[in-house]
Design a protein that fits this description.
This protein is mainly β and 159 residues long. It contains two helices and eleven strands, in the order βββββββββββαα.
Length: 159
Amino acid sequence: MPDKLSRAIYVRPDNTAVISCNQCGHSKNVPVGTYKGSKNRLKIKCKCSNIFTVILEFRKNFRKVTNLLGEYTNHSQKNIRGNIIVKNLSITGLKFISQGTGKFRNGDEITLLFRLDDTNRTMIKREATVRGVDKNNVRCEFEKSSEYALDGELGFYFM
């Protein structure tokens, strides 16, 4: 997560990023593929002598930090139900916290139900697969995520 003095820069599919100085506005297209998988925080010195920090974001999809209340049903474990807080969200998946994360395993098939914080308080229901469990964080990938990529609900939310 970027601190107040750094900002996220999204890396293009060709492993380049446009880095621009927030002081003078000078921008440059820079190859950053060598940093993938290792260093993602870079200190940059502009030609105007301004020094700033950028964080390279190699994710395929924008991930929005959220704090949305919702619930889950874990079909892989006798339809266990519980409450969640969606901590971040993208077109293809999300991360949530739950009191009972010990119940989740990689590969679990779950249904997620939560409301967006948009003006309509849009209800989202998605089938998902658990892709990772770490302490109280559960990371999920939406089923059929490519079909949902352009849907009106989440697509409009990220515009």
